[in-house]
Structures are given as structure tokens and as C-alpha cells.
User: Which sequence fits this backbone?
């Protein structure tokens, strides 16, 4: 079994992948914190032959996780942001400073769709662009839905957006504080993504496939105006691409990769942008 770990600022996600069949056998998530308890938080390490890790948590969390895993598992791979990988050149002035979850998402998106806009809706919302040909432009970081809500301190932090709500309900004016807050932050997130996507496609002259991941991906997806794919395993896809361990991975196949709809034409994106600027 291969254990893939995605340590975010809020949640540490894991999945167990069967190295022979490529099936995902189990998955889970625990709050990101300093100590892992094997057996309770993460699966039985006796069946794990290799671990692949993406971490944006504090250095100590990664160091302790790696130390614990190395005692039990022969091969532990830790992903890092690099100036270039798998045909993609990192757009950051200091490439190693790009969050590795963003880098892995960009690499996975490029492997799946060629050029892409990769959006990760977690503690932060990140929007990264890779052009056809592999040039990563850099991206945008804004607070995630939960962080935006917590920063308001209006006593509404415990009433989360219902992930099953329809976008239409979430975009109307709120008539109670909790509704006004939830609808406001939802509007902020989806309109930023819609706008940034259109602006960058316009200025680069290319309509890019749009991919969305992260804990809030499903609810954010409903507010996006352009064709896109939700890809819960996008960061894991980057781990598979960087550290291929199975025949399928070496052939470029990522478990759980979605079908990606063709982007809407550039003319339509430009028309939408021109219209929104009139308003
Ligand atoms: N069951 C859940 N527990 C915690 N957060 C959740 C849950 N479902 C959705 N979320 C949302 O997902 C975000 C965490 O998403 P995730 O992509 O795991 O973030 P990160 O990678 O930053 O840890 C939270 O900030 C919250 O808005
Ligand atoms: C922007 C992030 C905080 C997003 O992390 P997440 O929301 O997935 O926990 C993370 O990618 C990070 O720490 N990046 C380093 C700064 C940068 O990418 O510029
Ligand atoms: K994120």
C-alpha cells in the first residue's frame, strides 16, 4: 500500500492506495496538529510500503511526521517546490517559496489538461495559472471561507455554509447576520475566482481548463460561471506525478482524475469581462 498525505493548515488528509490495482482503499482526515497517533489517526503502517507527503504546515509538524513515519516505513518521499518539474516552470521569483500544495496542484493540472487554472479552496483560496507549454505564471491567495468568517467576529463563526446549499440561495441578500455573513463571503470567493479567471485568460489570450479542489470545492463550484472540473485528489495527483511508484503512475495516470470539460471560448470570456466592467 502507498500512503499519500496532504497536510494543510486546517486538515491533514490521507489516502491509502493499492500499489497493484491502483484502487484507493481508504481515506480520512484529522485536524493538523503536532502529533500523529498511528493506528488511531492514520492507517495501520504495517501495510504501508511507501509514503508521499505534501505539507504546508509549520516545519515542526512535517519534521515530526517524517520522523515518526521513517521508523515504520522504508520509503518516505516529501514533495518540495522546485524551479522546474514535469514540463512546468515555477513562476515564483523564489520558487521554493511557492506553497507545495499549489505546486503539486499546478503539476497535476498540467499533466491532466495541459495549461490550466488550478484553484484550491482550503484554509486559503489559491488560484494558480499554468500556460500551455508549461509556464506557471504565479497566482493569487485569498482567505478561505472559514477564515473570512472567523475574521469578522460577529458571533457567526460556528454556523458554516451548508455545503449542500445552491449558489442561488447563497448569493441573495442575507436577512439575518449569519446569512449576511455567509452570503457575503461566498460572493467574495466566487466572484474573485470568476474575475481572476477571466482577467488572466483575457490578458494571456488563451481559454484555460479550470480545476477546483479543497474542502470547500463543491460549494464554490456551484457559484462558478464557466465550465470546470472538481478534483478532490488534485494534490495527490501531483504526488503521483512527482513520485510515480506504480506502472499506471509511470504511464502518467492519476487516480481519481476527473473528466475535464473544454473551456468556454476566449471571445465569450472577453464578452463577459467587458460586460462586468460596464456594471
Ligand atoms: N468536515 C470539515 N471539517 C473541516 N473543514 C471543512 C469540512 N468540510 C469543509 N471544510 C472546509 O474546508 C476547509 C479545509 O479544507 P482543506 O482543503 O482541507 O484545507 P487545508 O488544506 O487548508 O487544511 C475549512 O476551512 C472549511 O472551510
Ligand atoms: C497559501 C497556503 C497557505 C495555502 O494553504 P492551505 O489553504 O491549503 O492550507 C500555502 O500554499 C502556503 O503556505 N504557501 C506559501 C506561500 C505562497 O504560496 O506564496
Ligand atoms: K488552499
Assistant:
Amino acid at each position: 500500500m502507498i500512503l499519500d498525505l496532504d497536510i494543510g493548515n486546517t486538515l491533514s488528509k490521507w489516502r491509502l492506495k493499492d500499489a497493484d490495482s491502483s484502487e484507493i482503499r481508504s481515506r480520512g482526515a484529522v485536524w493538523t496538529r503536532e502529533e500523529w497517533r498511528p493506528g488511531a489517526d492514520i492507517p495501520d503502517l504495517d501495510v504501508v510500503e511507501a509514503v508521499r507527503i505534501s505539507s504546508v504546515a509549520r516545519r515542526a509538524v512535517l519534521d515530526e511526521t517524517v520522523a515518526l513515519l521513517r521508523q515504520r516505513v522504508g520509503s518516505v518521499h516529501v514533495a518540495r517546490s522546485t524551479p522546474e518539474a514535469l514540463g512546468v516552470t515555477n513562476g515564483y521569483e523564489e520558487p521554493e517559496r511557492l506553497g507545495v500544495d499549489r505546486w503539486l496542484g499546478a503539476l497535476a493540472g498540467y499533466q491532466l489538461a495541459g495549461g490550466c487554472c488550478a484553484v484550491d479552496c482550503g484554509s486559503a483560496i489559491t488560484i494558480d495559472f499554468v500556460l500551455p507549454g508549461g509556464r506557471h505564471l504565479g497566482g493569487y491567495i485569498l482567505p478561505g471561507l472559514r477564515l473570512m468568517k472567523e475574521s469578522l467576529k460577529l458571533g457567526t463563526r460556528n454556523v458554516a455554509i451548508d455545503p449542500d446549499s445552491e449558489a442561488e440561495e447563497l448569493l441573495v441578500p442575507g436577512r439575518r447576520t449569519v446569512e449576511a455573513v455567509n452570503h457575503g463571503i461566498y460572493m467574495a470567493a466566487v466572484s474573485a475566482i470568476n474575475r481572476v479567471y477571466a482577467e488572466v485568460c483575457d490578458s494571456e489570450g488563451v481559454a484555460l481548463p479550470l480545476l477546483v479542489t479543497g474542502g470547500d470545492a463543491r460549494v464554490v463550484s456551484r457559484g462558478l460561471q464557466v465550465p470546470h472540473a472538481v478534483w478532490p485528489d488534485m494534490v495527490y495527483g501531483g504526488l503521483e506525478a512527482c513520485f510515480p511508484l506504480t506502472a499506471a503512475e509511470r504511464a502518467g495516470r492519476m487516480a481519481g482524475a476527473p473528466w475535464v470539460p473544454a473551456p468556454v471560448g476566449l471571445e465569450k470570456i472577453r464578452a463577459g469581462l467587458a460586460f462586468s466592467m460596464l456594471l
The radius of gyration is 19 Å. The pocket of potassium ion (ligand 3) is lined by residues 120, 122, 124, 126, 214 (CB under 6 Å). The first helix runs from residue 59 to 72.
